[in-house]
Amino acid sequence: MTIINYHELNLYLQKRKRVIRRTRALVLVLVSISLSLIIASSIRYAPYDSGRVHVSHFTTFFKCWSNFGFCAPKSLEAKILNSTTRAKYAIVSSCVKGVGISDEMVQASVANKLMYCEDHKNVDCIINTEFRDLVGDFRFNVTYRQDQLSSKWYKFPLILENLDSYEWVIWLDCDTLILNRTKSIEDALKSSVDDQIFDGKDVIFTVDHNGVNLGAFVVRNSDWSKVFLNHLYDQRGSVTFAHKFNLTRNRRSAPLQEGWADQNALIIVQDSFYSLEQLTRHTLKSSKLSAMLNNFCLVDTRFIHHRVYCHSINCNKYFLCLAQSVTQTIRCEVPTTLKDACKQQKKYLNLHP
């Protein structure tokens, strides 16, 4: 005869139920984490699909600024994607109102770049025009709020999101203007960099007297460049933290200033992740490309002008005037600050041809 101890049996069953519940909960947590990582990864690399239409199909949704001769969007992303042919190049930019960037400048910069892409069917334009949630990344320290991060960090995820769709992506800061609408991107690149060197590089930097200038640079669609850009983007926490507590975090003992957030990230990545041989093999610092894509001066050979180190009211007026001069005959008075930057760049480029 079997004697059943119902008290012990009940304890055993309750213990078993608890184990089953905990196991189920653990499985659900692991599944949730896995799904979150998959979703985050797909968002990180996948290009946006919304709005991928030719500009003529959606100009009715835009506000037109007649001074700049074009209709520019006020949506999250302004895009001209030429649907009839697959574009080889993309101009990617971010124009968000902030320090030194007014609403009028955003409008002028966006309209200027969209005009160029409308004229050149092998170039697409992808321009961010609103604040983005940079905190929504599982790698980031969540104690930082969005408003604590410089909008300079936008460039790296924006390039990554669109890189797979093109052979080359040209990043242009908001305070750049394309002054020669007839010159092609391909001609500008090929005339600046020797074909053999150009074909072997993954990232081509413009330079000035302060070193690499990330206001304009060129990225090839390659595995190496994607890893490189991700390393740069991953530094946003380090640079923001260092800036907050006035720390120094690189071998060169340079202060990590938030105003130069992207440049600071580049210094950290170059010092910490790559050897000189790797950087020499995969990247190029080109003075000729600087004169073409990142020119501080107004010269006959100009293609893209960059209004650097100039954030006063007069500087903003100059930028708006220059944007109008692309489609109208207008004389614009160059601010003294920009004249000085031009002289410094000329001196540097003459010493480093």
TrEMBL record:
Protein name: Glycosyltransferase family 34 protein
InterPro entries named in the record: Glyco_trans_34 (IPR008630), Nucleotide-diphossugar_trans (IPR029044)
UniProt keyword terms in alphabetical order: Glycosyltransferase, Membrane, Transferase, Transmembrane, Transmembrane helix
Top-level lineage group: Eukaryota
Originating organism: Bathycoccus prasinos
TM annotation in the entry: 25-46
GO terms for biological process, alphabetical: protein N-linked glycosylation
Family: Belongs to the glycosyltransferase 34 family.
GO molecular function, one term: glycosyltransferase activity
Lineage: Eukaryota, Viridiplantae, Chlorophyta, Mamiellophyceae, Mamiellales
Keyword presence, Membrane: yes
Cellular component GO terms, alphabetical: Golgi membrane
